[in-house]
UniProtKB/TrEMBL annotation:
<dbReference type="Pfam" id="PF00069">
    <property type="entry name" value="Pkinase"/>
</dbReference>
<dbReference type="InterPro" id="IPR008271">
    <property type="entry name" value="Ser/Thr_kinase_AS"/>
</dbReference>
<keyword id="KW-0053">Apoptosis</keyword>
<keyword id="KW-0808">Transferase</keyword>
<dbReference type="InterPro" id="IPR011009">
    <property type="entry name" value="Kinase-like_dom_sf"/>
</dbReference>
<feature type="domain" description="Protein kinase">
    <location>
        <begin position="39"/>
        <end position="299"/>
    </location>
</feature>
<protein>
    <recommendedName>
        <fullName>Serine/threonine-protein kinase 17A</fullName>
        <ecNumber>2.7.11.1</ecNumber>
    </recommendedName>
</protein>
<dbReference type="GO" id="GO:0006915">
    <property type="term" value="P:apoptotic process"/>
</dbReference>
<dbReference type="GO" id="GO:0035556">
    <property type="term" value="P:intracellular signal transduction"/>
</dbReference>
<keyword id="KW-0547">Nucleotide-binding</keyword>
<keyword id="KW-0539">Nucleus</keyword>
<feature type="compositionally biased region" description="Low complexity">
    <location>
        <begin position="7"/>
        <end position="23"/>
    </location>
</feature>
<comment type="similarity">
    <text>Belongs to the protein kinase superfamily. CAMK Ser/Thr protein kinase family. DAP kinase subfamily.</text>
</comment>
<dbReference type="GO" id="GO:0004674">
    <property type="term" value="F:protein serine/threonine kinase activity"/>
</dbReference>
<keyword id="KW-0418">Kinase</keyword>
<keyword id="KW-0723">Serine/threonine-protein kinase</keyword>
<keyword id="KW-0597">Phosphoprotein</keyword>
Amino acid sequence: MIPLEKPGSGSPSSAAASGSGPTGRGRTVFLYNDCSKMVSVVCRITRGKFAVVRKCVKKDSGKEFAAKFMRKRRKGQDCRMEIIHEIAVLELAQDNPWVINLHEVYETPSEMILVLEYAAGGEIFDQCVADREDAFKEKDVQRLMRQILEGVHFLHTHHVVHLDLKPQNILLTSETPLGDIKIVDFGLSRIMQNSEELREIMGTPEYVAPEILSYDPISLATDMWSIGVLTYVMLTGISPFLGDDKQETFLNISQMNLSYSEEEFDGVSESAIDFIKKLLVRRPEDRSTAEECLKHPWLIPSSTWDPSLKVKGALEAKALQEGASVADIRAGLETAEAEDSLGTEEFIVVTSYTLGQCRQSEKEKMEQKAISKRFKFEEPLLQEIPGEFIY
């Protein structure tokens, strides 16, 4: 459920809409008719109101993906541009290893379908609420938090604020052994323009920053508050501000009612607690940035280093240097090319993104089974759990 205001002219959505394809980096958009009987399996979003996600398998390769079906009209309003915004942010971050990868985009008269990388380990939420023996160990949280921060640092470097960082939006590539993280769900994300102030009431109650509740300007630091709450939850299994209802939760956030007691942080290092305290600060300008967090002693003790992390760190540094800017996306939206793995028989009518609704034609009748020719959809793996949002 994303707020239904038009994004600004500098947002990825307007950039994506201005070209002759969704990305200009080899993404292909296919037009086909509506599919039915889709069941939510990945995202904690109420089915029928925003999106449903199903696991699918590419028929020619057997590779697994997650297909996110997003309705273009919600509550009588056209939300296509908001979906394009999410697509463009995913395109912007496609070279970052910690953001979910967008494989393909399909469009029907009523929906847009994002075929995404499949994260087999599910949400980190499951480990956050697990019994002590199955919950995250501190060394696991150190490794995963560094990955989260590297992903968020990449986004912030490109002026993207996520605005809904929580355990349900952090996936794992595998559960056993514990894999790497993937940041998902950019439906609430915004592009921060230096000359503009952004004030919106949005997010998930337990993770929203004080400035959202007081309707003060949102900034990149708003994400850092959420990361502080996320770290607290991953280390303790306790949501620090959660009350019996929304009002109590909001009051706890506004009054900074949280505890760092020994009972809650049993076995957790002082360095980890110090890390959280540098983020759960009322004034946004006093919070650590993602870059500063990556330099915190808790995330770089010698005991946590691992050769693979050094390699990943080097790759991330290269991505930060070579990663596309929003301007790159705008300039690259000239053509949409089919991926090399597509056979000639699978080349389908490619549609261009426009600012208006996608025009339908008789050609749709020829394309109605496009996605079913290439993907087999499987039964849901998880139960659907509705998300709870402020608005």
